[in-house]
Amino acid sequence: MNFILAGLNIDHAPIEVLERVAVPTHSLKGHLGRLATYAGGGVILSTCNRTEIYSVAENAEVGVRQLREYIDAVAEHAGITGISEYIYTLTGDEVAKQLFGVTAGLQSIALGESQILGQVTRALQAAGEAGTVDPMLSRLFHAALRTSRKIRKETDLGRNRTSVSSLGVQELQTTLGDFKGLRVVLLGAGEMGKLTARALRRYGADDIVVASRSMNRGNILADELGAPQVAFEDITEAIAEADVLITCTASTDSVIMVDVVKEVIDTRPDRKLSILDLGMPRDVDPASADVAGVNLISLPELQAKSVKSWEFREKAAAEAQDLIDDGIRRFKERLMGINSEPVIKTLGARMEQMRREEVEQTLGQLDGLTEKQAVSVEKMTRSLVRRILADPISFLRSEEDSGAEVVQKVFALVEQSETEHELE
Prior knowledge:
Layout: E1 2-9, H1 15-21, H2 28-39, E2 43-47, E3 50-57, H3 60-77, E4 88-91, H4 93-103, H5 115-130, H6 135-154, H7 164-176, E5 184-187, H8 191-202, E6 208-212, H9 215-225, E7 229-231, H10 235-240, E8 244-247, H11 258-267, E9 273-277, E10 294-297, H12 299-307, H13 310-365, H14 371-398, H15 402-410, H16 416-423
Parallel strand pairs: 5-6, 5-8, 6-7, 8-9, 9-10
Antiparallel strand pairs: 1-3, 1-4, 2-3
Helix pairs in contact: 2-3, 2-5, 4-6, 4-13, 5-6, 6-13, 13-14, 13-15
């Protein structure tokens, strides 16, 4: 079996495309069911800056084509076509390198963010619950998660607490100068909303209003912040009284339309509005950026800022790369050991059977052999078999899958009928 991957990310695709193929957590089950129909299954990892599908296939070329077809189908269902130029594909070891790098946070907008660990874990769990994850693929994901935790413990990435939320809040602070005295409306009370709220507090925001389409979830975050809450139905009035709007919902469509933004500005033409849109898909109609008095920041702008810090990114990546390489090497060793163990067991059983037959035949031909001498023959033949098997076993545990096939044929471990079938 071969590891395969197809995906899109913010580096290779316009956000207009990326947001149409994004898969919200609440839609994962349905998408995984359709993925199973197209490509037999896999794991869908969809974050704020990427949607990637990991799977396995007997024929890598066929498998990759099926993943591409699935992504095209998702895009067409969302009303867009012609996205093939933005889809990248990987096979074999390159898939492992990609997953390990992504899970370590090396490809996140906020370098090394810890949120990606939870996203990868949830993607794997969803695939497990849907029955679409192959055991070999599951082992790859678990290995990537283990290595990511090790990287965070042993390198500077673990000390980098930056998240997409805090990057966005930093960018707002750069524009506004100071949050003190400014009213901030935070729309979204999920995981991203909580991270954003904490970042706002760290950067001095003292007037936060929470809004959410889920009153219960909004209530929990509002209580945590000691902040007021407004109903989603009253969001326009709340924005009209705000200096900053931050959105981070899990909606599949825009929740703040340009007409709403225009209406707000019309009521207060001399007061500017800064908007930070952390949603994927975007929560705010992008046309809002053209409204006079509005400063709209979304994920592409944050990505551009992040890319500028290449010196730090390269240093952190270099520190983590050795651990990633080691993690991949260990994973391959374990995987090849798992794949070859049945062959090793069969080979050992066959050699033991042959040894026992020869010993019994030889001892039966010898007269006057003492019990001590018979035990010595047993020990000697067992030792000889172990030495003979040492190299084949080492070969099995260090070679690719084809090594098992070679050993099976050399030692005639395949069934006679299978051999004859191959010769026909």
